[in-house]
C-alpha cells in the first residue's frame, strides 16, 4: 500500500444559528479555506499562511488547525508525523463565518486521510463537534448544505434542511472582529419558558419558510430570544443595517454565527438592492464592510 504524504483539503465557511436555531442549525457557504498538508520525514512543524488576514494566523503549536490534526492522531493512539501546513485563507477570522470550524474540520480531515482513513465521516464529525463545543458550524463545514443537528441517545442525528433556490443569503462582513468566546460570554445560562417556546415555534417556521420561500413565514421566522438580543450591542451599527436591509426588501436580518457579520435572507430579485442598502448603512456609521450575496456550498469538506 502506498503511503500518501501530501494532500489538500478545501473547507467551506458557514453561517450558524440563522436566527432562532442557536447552536443547532447552520449552512455552508461558497467561501473557502484551503489547507495543504505535506509530511516531513525529518519531523517538526512548519505552518505558512496566505490570503485574507493571513498575518493573524498562529504559526506554532497553538494553531487550531494543527491542534485538530494532533487530536485525530491522539484519538487513534498514534504519533502525528512531522508536518508542513500551508493555509490559503478565504474565510475572514473571528467574523461569525466559521473560520474556527474550517480549521477544526480541515485539521481532522487532513490527518484522517494521511493516517489511512481509520475514522469514518461520522467519527470525524463527532470529534469536530467535541472540539468546537457545538455542532452548528462544524457539521455544515464537513457535510455541506444546510444542516440541523440534534442529540440522540447514541450521539447525533443530522438532517439536511431543504433550502429554496430563490432564497439568497446576503452576507455583510464588517472590518472589525468579535471572538465567538466573547460573544458567548454575554449569553444567559438560563432562559424562561416563554423564550423557549418563542424559539421552538420560530425555528419550526424557519424550516418551512426555507423550504417554500413563503414570504410571510420567513418575515416572522428570523426572530430569536436566545442570543441575538444579548449580542446586538456588541455589533456597532446593528440597528441601522437591520433597518436598511428590511427597507430594501429583505425578509429579515440575523447575526451570522456569533457575529459580527450580519446576514439578510432575501428573495433573489432583491439581492442587489439589499447588498447596497447594507453597505451604505454601515458606511454611514464609518464602518467599512464587504457585502456579498453567497450561495450555499453543497459539498462540504473535500480532498482536492
Ligand atoms: N485557518 C485557521 N488556522 C488556524 N487557526 C484558525 C484558522 N481560522 C480560525 N482560526 C482560529 O480561530 C479563531 C477565530 O475563531 P472564532 O472566534 O470562533 O471565530 P469564527 O466565527 O471565525 O469561527 C482565530 O482567532 C484563530 O485562532
Ligand atoms: N452557535 C454558535 C456559532 C458560532 O459560530 P462562529 O461562526 O461564530 O464560530 C454561537 O452562536 O456561538
TrEMBL record:
GO terms for molecular function: ATP binding; homoserine kinase activity. Residues 63-145 form the GHMP kinase N-terminal domain. Its EC number is 2.7.1.39. It is found in: Cytoplasm. Pathway: Amino-acid biosynthesis; L-threonine biosynthesis; L-threonine from L-aspartate: step 4/5. It comes from the Bacteria. One of its GO terms (cellular component) is cytoplasm. GO terms for biological process: threonine biosynthetic process. Transmembrane segments: none annotated. It catalyses: L-homoserine + ATP = O-phospho-L-homoserine + ADP + H(+). Its main location: cytoplasm. ATP binds at residues 92-102. Keywords: Amino-acid biosynthesis, ATP-binding, Cytoplasm, Kinase, Nucleotide-binding, Threonine biosynthesis, Transferase. Residues 208-281 form the GHMP kinase C-terminal domain. Belongs to the GHMP kinase family. Homoserine kinase subfamily. Catalyzes the ATP-dependent phosphorylation of L-homoserine to L-homoserine phosphate. This is Homoserine kinase. The lineage of its organism: Bacteria, Bacillati, Cyanobacteriota, Cyanophyceae, Nostocales.
